[in-house]
Structures are given as C-alpha cells and as structure tokens.
Design brief:
This protein is of the alpha/beta class and about 725 residues long. Helix content is about 35%, strand content about 15%. A hairpin with a 4-residue loop joins β3 and β4.
C-alpha cells in the first residue's frame, strides 16, 4: 500500500486506533501523527522524579517493578494486588483488584499510565495501563530496543496511550515505499544549507526515535524552522495584501479639534507621547489602513495619545470609535473626554461650539430611548467620537463614516469582536489597539510580525510611583494587621484606598462573573473558595476599618449604581472601595494611594500589574499590598515576589509568558498550554523567528515568489485553508 502524508490513519492503523486518535487527539492523517511530537523522553531510571508527581496528575511514568504482593481483601470478596515500582529516585504503588493486571514480575521495566491518587499519604495508581518494555519492543532484526535508548512519551488520552502512539509512529516510519520517499521536504535547499538544518525526513526520524538528546535538539531546531517559516510567509503574505487594501486618508487639519485638545491639556505631553503621536498622525494621513499596537506602561498616557488620533480623524470628516472592556471604564472615558473638550464636545447643544463634535456613550445597559438617540447620533454622523462596550458590536449600530477604531485593553476582547467593529466601516478603518501589559498572545503575535508596534515607557512627571510588598498572611499573620493600619494611616492623611477581591460573594446569584480573576496558574480543588467582596467588606466594617466610609463595587450592580459609586469615590466621599477587578483598567482617581489585593495568588501577573496601576496616579506615592496564603518558597510565592520587585510592565509580560505560555498563536485562545505552533517558543526562539521572517520576506520579494518552491507553497496554502488562519487576518 502506497502511503503519503495525506493518507488517512484508518488505512494504516486500522479503524479502532484511528478513531480514537481522531476523536481524542485530533489526529486524522499520516501528517498529523508524524507532527504529533513527544512531550518528553525517558530513560530507564532517568525519568522525572516520582516524588515530583501531584495528586490528580494524569501521567505516564517509566519505572521498574520492585515487588508484587497479592492478598485477599478483609472488607469484601476478592483479592488486591499491590505492586511497588521505582525509578531510582522515588517509589509509588500500583493497585489492582481481583487479579485484573498485567503479569508483573520484580526486575521488569514498564510504562505505566494513569491518574495519580493517594492512599494513607502515599502516591498510587489504581488500575493503571501497563506496557512492559522487554522483548515485545525489540525490533525483529535485532536493532537496539527503544527503551534501551530514549523512550518517547507522547501527549496521550485516556483511551490512546503513549505507547499506542509510539507503536503507530514506528509503523509509519517503517511504512512501505521508504520513509524518505514518504516525506517531501518543503524547505528550499539553500535555506537548509544557510542555517545548517537537517532534512525533514531525518528530523522526523530523530524526533520520534532518537539515540541521544543531541538528536532531539537538532531535530526540534529543524522542525521549529518549518513552523516559523510557514507562519512568517503567511503573515507576510497577508501584510502585502493589506498594503493593497484601500482605506481613507485622514490628514491633520490645522485649527481643528486636535489643536483645541492640545491647547486644553492641563499638562505637557511627554517626549514619548509626542513621538508616538507623530507616528500615528503620519499613518492616519495614508490611504492604507493603519494597524498598530500601542504598548505602554500603566499610567504612561496611552489614552491621551489615542484621543489625539481620534481628534485628527474627526477633523478629517470621519468618526472614531473607542471600545472599552467595562461600562465603568467607558463612562469614565466619556466623562474625561467631554471635560477636556468642553463646548467642542457638545456640538448641537445650547452651549456647544459650532465647529465641535459630539461625544456619545453607547452601552448595553442604556434604556430604550437613550439607546435609540445614541444610535441615531452615530448613524447620522453627529457623533464624531463614540465610546462604548460590546454594545458597539451589535447589529443595528451603524456608523456614517467610521475612520478609526481604538480598542482599549485589547486582551479583554476576542479576535472576532475586534473584527466585528472594524467591519462597520464602509472602507477598512484605521485600527489602534492598546495594552498596558501585553498578555502572552499579544507578545507572541507582535514578535511573529503581525502587528506594527509603538511603545510608551516614560511616565508623566509628577507621579508618585508605587511600592509593592507581599503580605504572607499564612506565614506572618501579623503583617495583615499592619496592612490595615497602613490603610487607616493613608485615610487619616486625606487619601483613599482600594481593597480588591477575586469574587463578589453570595447575593442573589452565582458568585462567578467574567470580571473576576482571570486565573492564576497555580491552584487546585483543595483550596478554600476565593475571598469575596461582600464578605471582606462586612469583616472590615466590623473590624480593622471600623468607622471609615466604606462601600463596594462589583459587576452585579446596575450601571447607574456603579457610576454613582465611582463618582462618589472620585469625589472623596468614600474612603475605602472594596471591589472586584471591575476597577482593573482605566479607573483614574488621583487621590487613591493604597491598594490591598486579597488572595493575590488568584490573579495573573498582568492583572496584578494592571490593578496596582490604579493607585499613585497623582502626586502622592502609592502602596500595593499583595495578600496571600502561599508560602514564600512556593512557585506562587516566588511569582508574587517577582511582581512586587519590579514595576516594569514589559519584564512582567515576559514573566507572564513564562508562566502561561504563548497560547494558541493561530487561534482564539489568549493563553494556555496548547500552541498552534507545536514546538516554537517565544521565549526560546526569538532569534529563529526573526531569521525566518527575514527569509520569508526575501522569498516573497522575488519576482516569482513561491512559484519555484511548490512544497513550501503547499504548506502555506494548507495553513491558509485552516480556519485558525482567519485569526491572523482578524487579529
């Protein structure tokens, strides 16, 4: 039977195995299985330490049988067999009931797969899958047994074990017609030679059947190049197509809204704000749509830069839409913009300037009549600046001439949501996305070359700065008492404080809400429930903050109530605001100088950095206290210590990336363990990705492009037809 990379696995492996791989591992063809790489390699006695395993882990271990003991059970009929296995570093127990186990004998080595459990404080597998590594795995021609070299351990599932995958790959490598003929190398020979890369066939052989870790390293390097080059070619092709996409130039107009904003600003722009402003102004002046990421430290003034770009578009006759993640932030944006513009932001009103515009708020909670009026202002073009939440994306919201889309804290929105707003323009609008701490996917897409970037690092003068400390209430409970004393001291000095909790608490519905902590990487089912706003507020009122003016803010409050409480806090009528992460982004109360984050380990790195950016926004120095029960020596404690040790948002973005990985770079996931590019790592492969980008640009800049490289063109076409590639265009 002739086998190609596109041959269905059912024709090679049989329907039962192929069905399991398709349903549980999304593997359908020979290509899919060959690109399903081992997650690690084990050698007899050299695998990961058994005592590193945790309860609940589903793992495959390589270990030697130490003892086998079968006895009758006392409490019920039947027998129990206990098998002790070890790896040279630790031991664990395998438990089988009623002789339902493989024939195991002391001295044998095997692969054992199951879910780690505990009994009387010791780790154990109950009825694990077993695969003994002896004669059954030796090649019939006398080749070295795989287990005597490196044993590949594959990502597996409940019904498709690592050794089933191993045997299936072994069958493919020995498929009829020769493995070298089966695998057609898409990389041009000159690129392989220039970068010292293995052939694809050699790389696949070495990744699945290595004799040393050097084999693995060289094979992985070549396979990363496949992923990086195809991705860079896809991105470069889309960038070239976008360059031909017709947009509308929005040139700067002297004496317009932008000049009025500059004259009204109560502070001088930083050098970085001026430089980025000129960069944006130049791109808005082109008829090719801008697509730019504005990265900036918390408090660096990204919103002012975006507002000046919006004013330039309005001066040129277009409309600008600002998409905010929460109603609190959207309302604050509108309030701040209207205050800054004065009569220029109230066109059509009695005291409005004739040459001004309207600033319109559109959120989902608006009542019917105000919502109709807001939509009419947008559709008729009376509103030059439109600020809203997800409501801007709904059907029925039409723009007269959408010229610029600004997405604030872009990681709060999915790719499809951003694209839905962009599609509301008659021609593709300019797009500016902003973030204070790039989350993993944003960083990944930036390095992979999909976004042009601008960066603001300089903070405005006069800011007090934020000092951060970890409060380990489990190890040093007295420190929490001191934290509440610090809050009282700040309030006594005329300042205000935030207390942030991961959830709301019992009220009238379920506790969880989208604004809650976005999931720190650590945690488990055995931890207590996260601290809640309502519970903590009650405790503080009755205890350490008794007598202070304290109120709560969370997502279950109505929009009018949320707005009223934020106004009261901004006006100094509330001393301490106990809130969920509804205050995470954009909330600006210069008099707030201290923040206490309860259960700080329940929040991600970037989220903590965003939260503490809410304090010290005025002239007074700020303090952020990260309260946790985690031990200082634990990975969680070390992560919190790293957050406390630096205020560099870009360094923290890298830490976030180390913790959460890039996510699915070609998919909708913002972060996570599964990457659409299986081997590439943003942290480890920046130089490789940069080199691949240069090679991709050189290939596409030639007169014939990929016409002379049909294998590579086919790989790019395959990615282009994959539904995940749509995200590249929309992102």
């Amino acid at each position: 039977m002739a086998v190609t990379l596109e041959t269905p696995l059912a024709r090679v492996l049989g329907p039962k195995t192929a069905t399991g791989m398709a349903e549980q591992l999304d593997l359908h063809t020979v290509r899919d299985l060959l690109r399903h790489y081992p997650r690690r390699y084990a050698r007899r006695g050299e695998m990961a330490r058994l005592d590193d395993l945790q309860k609940g882990d589903r793992v495959t271990i390589l270990a030697q049988v130490k003892s086998v003991n079968t006895r009758r059970m006392r409490q019920r009929h039947g027998t129990i067999t206990e098998v002790a296995v070890g790896d040279g570093a630790g031991t664990m127990k395998l438990v089988f009931f009623n002789n339902k186990h493989a024939k195991l004998a002391p001295g044998e080595w095997g692969l054992f797969a199951g879910t780690v459990g505990t009994y009387q404080g010791s780790l154990q597998f109950t009825h694990p899958d077993c695969h003994m590594l002896e004669d059954s795995d030796s090649d019939s021609d006398g080749d070295q047994d795989w287990a005597r070299a490196l044993v590949p351990i594959y990502p597996a599932s409940k019904d498709v074990s690592s050794w089933v995958i191993q045997k299936s790959v072994k069958l493919l490598i020995g498929a009829g017609g020769g493995f070298g003929e089966l695998v057609v190398d898409p990389l041009p020979e000159d690129i392989r030679a220039r970068h010292g890369l293995l052939s694809l066939a050699a790389a696949l052989l070495d990744i699945h059947r290595p004799t040393s870790m050097d084999d693995v390293e060289h094979a992985a390097h070549r396979l990363k190049w496949d992923e990086a080059l195809v991705l860079q070619l896809t991105l470069a092709g889309r960038r070239k197509a976008a360059a031909l996409e017709p947009g509308i130039a929005r040139p700067r107009r002297p004496g317009g809204l932008l000049d009025a904003i500059d004259a009204a600003l109560p502070f001088a722009l930083t050098e970085g704000q001026r430089e980025v402003g000129e960069e944006l102004a130049a791109e808005l002046d082109r008829d090719q749509p801008m697509h730019r990421l504005l990265q900036g430290e918390v408090g660096s003034g990204k919103t002012v830069v975006a507002l000046r770009a919006m004013a330039q578009v309005v001066d040129a006759g277009g409309q600008a839409a600002l998409l905010a993640p929460t109603e609190v932030l959207a309302a604050q944006h509108v309030r701040g913009i209207r205050q800054l513009l004065g009569p220029l932001g109230r066109a059509g009103e009695l005291d409005g300037a004739a040459d001004g515009t309207r600033v319109t708020l559109l959120t989902g909670s608006l009542k019917a009549a105000p919502k109709r009026e807001a939509r009419a202002e947008v559709a008729e073009g009376r509103a030059g600046i439109v600020v809203g939440t997800h409501a801007l994306l709904q059907e029925g919201v039409e723009f007269a001439d959408l010229g610029l889309v600004v997405v604030d804290e872009q990681h709060r929105f999915g790719v499809e949501q951003r694209d839905a707003l962009r599609a509301k323009g008659s021609r593709p609008p300019h797009v500016l996305v902003m973030t204070a701490t790039p989350i993993p996917r944003t960083v990944a897409m930036t390095v992979y070359g999909d976004l042009e970037t601008s960066t603001l690092r300089q903070l405005p003068s006069g800011r007090g700065g934020v000092a951060s400390s970890v409060v380990p209430m489990g190890e040093k409970p007295g420190w929490l008492d001191r934290a509440w004393q610090r809050v009282r001291e700040e309030v006594a000095a005329g300042r205000q404080a935030y207390v942030v909790c991961p959830r709301i608490g019992d009220l009238t519905g379920p506790d969880d809400e989208p604004e809650d902590a976005d999931g720190a990487p650590d945690g488990g089912d055995d931890r207590r429930p996260p601290l809640a706003v309502l519970d903590v507020a009650e405790m503080l009122r009755a205890g350490p903050l008794n007598g202070l003016r304290l109120d709560v803010l969370h997502g279950r409050l109505g929009p009018e109530e949320k707005e009223a409480r934020m106004r009261a806090f901004a006006a100094g009528q509330i001393d301490v605001l106990v809130a969920t992460t509804v205050v995470e982004v954009g909330v600006d109360v210069p008099n707030a100088t201290v923040m206490v984050v309860m259960d700080a380990d329940r929040f991600g790195v970037s989220q903590l950095h965003q939260l503490r950016g809410r304090v010290a926004r005025g002239a007074h120095p700020g303090l952020c206290l990260l309260v946790t029960e985690a031990a200082a020596a634990s990975s969680t404690g070390q992560r919190l210590a790293a957050v406390a040790a630096t205020s560099d948002g870009f360094a923290l973005a890298r830490l976030d990336l180390e913790t959460r990985r890039e996510g699915d770079v070609l998919g909708a996931a913002q972060s996570g363990s599964r990457s659409g590019v299986r081997l590439l790592s943003l942290l480890e492969d920046e130089e490789l990705i940069s080199a691949a980008r240069a090679e991709a640009s050189a290939l596409l800049d030639t007169e014939r492009g990929l016409a002379d490289h049909p294998g590579l063109a086919a790989e790019v076409a395959r990615l282009a037809t994959d539904e995940r590639a749509d995200y590249l265009e929309k992102a």
